TrEMBL record:
Residues 17-63 form the Competence protein CoiA-like N-terminal domain. This is Competence protein CoiA family protein. Transmembrane segments: none annotated. Pfam families: CoiA_C, CoiA_N, CoiA_nuc. Residues 238-384 form the Competence protein CoiA C-terminal domain. Residues 70-227 form the Competence protein CoiA nuclease-like domain.
Length: 394
């Protein structure tokens, strides 16, 4: 940590630029420091690689700090972000490691930006998800906005526009209305904010996403916070490549949900997963709500519609109920997030897109009619061409 209280009760922030190495060494000789929260004595560390900071004694433990021993990576990142926010127009104030009495927590930073108070947490390691959610909920209960920034070293990039996100990392996503989620991360080595935006999950952990680097020295808060429109054609090309790979690659390990769905698919239409219609791979903004692979939850809905006779009607509630039953028996899983969103919104988005694709038509707010049969085929070349056509039209 960078902030401590000396023996006279004065708050000392060693991240401020006024401290030279000589002044810091003199400061360490002349004063005794204590943690502002737990009041235990702390040591002033003056290194040559990492910025000067305070550390709890070896056997000290502070219950309000995310970790008594912060990594160099975390310390450097927090230090960079503090100075970046301090230099920004529109940021009225920046507090480093303040203790918030109302939540009994110490965020890494607490800023006022455009008259909004925001607690900023920079997380570089995995912690108990319950702790993460509790911290976020306490901010929310007190009317404090919060922003979790992920340590960029924890991101796993598997292709040019493909990443692997763990269930823990999904808790860091942000969402704006009518858009897919996005995620902030920071790398102190490159001194750049890395934003993944328009996240489209293909499976429980693999996502297609655009990304952008914002070097701190040349970027403003406005640049980072106001995301640029994504290039839909690029993401959809990557999505089509992902579907193609799924269709053509020999199946390896399958999850219980995929195996169960494939067994039912064989019994119903006598086809394997790789021959699912293109309608089971639609890249939609609300896909993130389901943790199950896109082809599993969309596939179950297609089978529901397949069982309805041509020009037959059904209600949206019927689909909700059918999927709810699949969730109850473990066939489908929704994603567990800090800001939980109902799975119904994902189903609604999907049904509206099926209406755009002339599979169904809405006869009212919550009533639909099947107007075209879903075509099941074992002709792979036809499916690959259809993927390009349908996904490219979304």
């Amino acid at each position: 940590m960078f902030v401590a209280i000396d023996q006279e009760g004065l708050m000392v922030n060693v991240a401020e630029k006024k401290w030279s190495r000589q002044r810091l060494m003199r400061l360490r000789e002349e004063r005794i420091f204590n943690c502002p929260t737990c009041k235990q004595e702390v040591d002033l560390k003056i290194g040559s690689i990492i910025a000067a900071h305070f550390a709890h004694k070896k056997y000290g433990e502070c219950p309000t700090v995310k970790g008594s021993h912060e990594s160099d990576y975390h310390m450097r990142g927090k230090h960079d972000l503090y100075h970046w926010f301090t230099s920004q127009k529109g940021v009225e104030s920046v507090q480093l490691e303040p203790y918030l009495q109302e939540t009994r927590q110490r965020p890494d930073l607490f800023i006022e930006y455009n008259r909004n108070k925001i607690a900023i947490e920079y997380q570089c390691s995995t912690i108990d998800t319950r702790i993460l959610r509790k911290r976020s909920q306490l901010y929310h209960q007190e009317g404090i906005s919060y922003l979790w920034i992920l340590g960029a070293k924890t991101l796993t990039r598997v292709a040019s526009q493909s990443y692997r996100l763990s269930p823990f990392q999904w808790n860091f996503i942000l969402k704006k209305e009518n858009s897919a989620p996005y995620l902030f991360s920071y790398c102190p080595k490159s001194r750049a904010m890395i934003v993944l935006y328009h996240l489209l999950p293909f499976s429980s952990q693999t996502v297609i996403s655009e990304h952008k680097h914002y070097p701190l020295p040349s970027s403003s808060v406005h640049d980072v916070m106001n995301l640029q429109p994504y290039k839909k054609e690029n993401l959809h090309k990557e999505w089509v490549r992902k579907v193609r790979s799924f269709r053509l690659k020999a199946p390896g390990f399958q999850s219980k949900q995929s195996s169960k769905f494939q067994q039912y698919l064989y019994q119903t239409v006598h086809l394997p997963l790789s021959y699912l219609p293109s309608y089971a791979f639609l890249p939609l903004a609300n896909n993130y709500i389901f943790e199950s692979p896109v082809y599993v939850w969309q596939g179950w809905i297609l089978l529901f519609i397949h069982a309805i006779s041509l020009y037959g009607s059904f209600r949206t509630h019927d689909v909700y109920h059918a999927i709810s039953m699949r969730m109850n028996d473990g066939s489908i899983t929704s994603r567990s997030l800090i800001k939980q969103v109902s799975f119904i919104s994902a189903i609604d988005t999907y049904l509206m897109k099926l209406a755009d694709l002339a599979v169904v038509v809405f006869e009212g707010k919550d009533r639909l009619k099947k107007i075209n049969e879903i075509r099941w085929t074992n002709q792979m070349e036809e499916l690959l061409k259809e993927d390009v056509k349908i996904i490219g039209s979304i």
